[in-house]
Amino acid sequence: MTEIGLIGLPNVGKSTVFSLLTKISVPIEKFPFTTIEPNVGVIEVPDGRLDFLSSHLKPKKKTYATIKFVDIAGLVKGASQGEGLGNKFLAHIREVDGIVHILRFFFDNTISSSIGEVNPIEEIKVINLELLFSDEEILKNYVSKLVPKARSGDKIAASRMEFIDLLIRICNETLSIYEVRKFIRSHMNDLKDKELISLLRQLLSNKDVMYLLNYDETIERNAVNEKIYEVENFTGCKCLCLAAKFELSLLDFPEEERKKLRYEYAVNEDEVKNFIQHAVKNLGLITFYTVVGDEFRAWLIKQGSSILDAAGKIHSDMRDGFINAEVCEFDTFKNTPDLRVLHQQGNIKIYGKDYIVKDGDIIKINFR
Description:
Layout: E1 3-7, H1 14-22, E2 39-44, H2 48-57, E3 61-63, E4 66-71, H3 86-94, E5 98-105, H4 120-151, H5 155-174, H6 177-188, H7 194-202, E6 208-215, H8 221-235, E7 239-242, H9 244-250, H10 255-265, H11 271-282, E8 285-292, E9 295-302, H12 307-314, H13 316-320, E10 322-328, H14 330-335, H15 339-345, E11 349-351, E12 362-367
Parallel strand pairs: 1-4, 1-5, 3-9, 5-6, 6-7, 8-12
Antiparallel strand pairs: 2-4, 8-9, 10-11, 10-12
Helix pairs in contact: 1-9, 4-5, 5-6
């Protein structure tokens, strides 16, 4: 299952966000390192298309796609050198598929800030440098193992050293995780060296990342929007906002009361749903759907995956015994929400194993 890590400095609200998303109660304190071992929770991905399909097909069971969120302890300046159990926490980040960097935009004198101020851009700078320094250490260790081989005339080792030395130089000269990521991704498709590809995939600089501004509901909306723009302009990455503590407090209220309070504070009721959907999209995942017996189900898969990959996602027997797939695009179904009629109209297409799955495909796998 795809895993998304929640990272950030201490006391920015990671555990609050985690509790809100997963409905799992975890310790939330006003001091750093309440979280040591990661908290893990699986959540359903909100899906309006699944709801639409189910409302017309009337299955007995409707199953949303799921994704795993991991609440990773706060990093501090010097984490790459082991400060604040930094090496342990950095290792946790390497294990997830993508990152959500949570930024503090709430003002509470009882909750200390590890940088001494509420400043999301400075928080980004601190975390990015630690991720970058950690990657640089890994690259240098890798190069040190290549040196004896390169000196003995191993051309593959020499080629690898040349590539990694260039990457280390970019780290040192730019001190920018975004420049390092740009370099890596500009070369990934052309690289044939499986060992190098494996190394690059381990780097924190190469993780998909988005930002979440954890704000206080009393802050004016214009100020929140301006800060989102500032973060996106600085990072070149998507940034969303979430009044995490406020939304968490609403869980005990009836739905009508929640709506009134959100209206009073101008908080968008779709913030949680939008965040989850964007976090999934940011990982390059798309959704396809299956109707099997009485169950209608949504699945997540990497964009660009083949129909064989989709079949294997459902069950290994489907991949191994694959014959063909019957596929209907969601928009086609939306216009004519009746599978029997769509069959008659020829709008359900038959594809072989080379078909590339598209977002929203409704798929039936025929297999031996």
